[in-house]
Every structure is written in C-alpha cells, then in structure tokens.
C-alpha cells in the first residue's frame, strides 16, 4: 500500500466514537447520550470543543444520516425523510433556504421534544439558539429538547487525549512533539487524532522515528490530501 493510500485511509476511516471522546467537563452530557438519544438535542460550543466528534459518535452508536452546511439540502423536496436519526453540524452556517428545509423536516417527521417521538435529531452550532439569525418558529423547536453547552478541552485535557490516542497504538508521544503541537498546530481534536493515526501508520511503513521534522512532513502530506 502506498503512503498516499495510507493517508487516505486515515482520513476516511470511521474513528469518532464515545470511546475516544474526552469527556472532561462534559461528563453529564456523555452519560445521557450513552444511555439514550433524546428526540431533540441542541449542542453548542466554540471551535475545537468536539462538536463534530460528538455528532459522529452519536451517529456511530445509533445510526442515521449526517449533514453539515455543505451537504444539507436547500430544497425541502431533496430531503431524505426516511431516516430515524438526523445529525446536523455547523447550522450557524446554514443559508435561509436550508433553515426553511430544516423547519420542513421538523414538520414532516413530526419531530417533538417528547419521548414518544419516532424520530430524533441532534444539532450542533457555535452559538446558542437565541443568538442564531433564524425564523422564530424554528428557534422554538430547537428549544423543545436538551440544550447543552459543550465545554472546550483544557490544554491538559488535550494533552491527555493525544497521549492516550498514541498509547492505544502502542507508543508514547514525545514531550518535545507535544510542546511543538501546542505552539504551532490547530487545537482541533479531529485534526490531532488524524495526525497521530498518520504518524503511527507512516512511522511503521517508513521506519521513521516520531520527531518534530517527521511531524511537519506528515502534516504537510495531510494538508495536501485535503486539497
């Protein structure tokens, strides 16, 4: 398998689960979602707080369909209304047409905040419902269920998450690499996990030691793969 194929395998593999989600400061929410998927849940938090990770973990556990602002239809007629679970990411980036389609989805599937609802929907944003510029009837529906602010990982929690990810693969992340990542890299947990997974696979295939120059090289390859 070529190195580029290894990179693509890391980028495409399903890897975001409750097992590798660091629950620090969010234990209450994780406990709820591990036991059941509420009919309506609205999760908001700042960048790199783990919103996408949590949505993907929910999808992996309960099944359903995932959308973000790039994939959610603008026309309600293009919506798939046959699913039982819906996961909507970054709705603060939705257009007015997409908000209309989302309202249609709530209405068509009779999504409600009661446990008797046959359909569940999880929504993520970088701001609470009251700060979104949306139609009021849709805002009201967001408040039918649980509204939860996701707490951003502290530097220490992020460090622990990275170390744990590497140790799951049988190696230790060097301290100088951790310090360099803190200083020069995104704090986005999905990016960091992809990086650690790539370091694991490429260090084995290329027989390389985990050093800062090697980390820089792998980051460059990851970024090129996204172009």
TrEMBL record:
GO terms for cellular component: plasma membrane. SUPFAM superfamilies: P-loop containing nucleoside triphosphate hydrolases. It comes from Taylorella asinigenitalis 14/45. The lineage of its organism: Bacteria, Pseudomonadati, Pseudomonadota, Betaproteobacteria, Burkholderiales. It comes from the Bacteria. One of its GO terms (biological process) is DNA replication initiation. Residues 155-218 form the Hda lid domain. GO terms for molecular function: DNA replication origin binding. This is DnaA regulatory inactivator Hda. It holds the Pfam family Hda_lid. InterPro entries: Hda_lid (IPR055199), P-loop_NTPase (IPR027417).
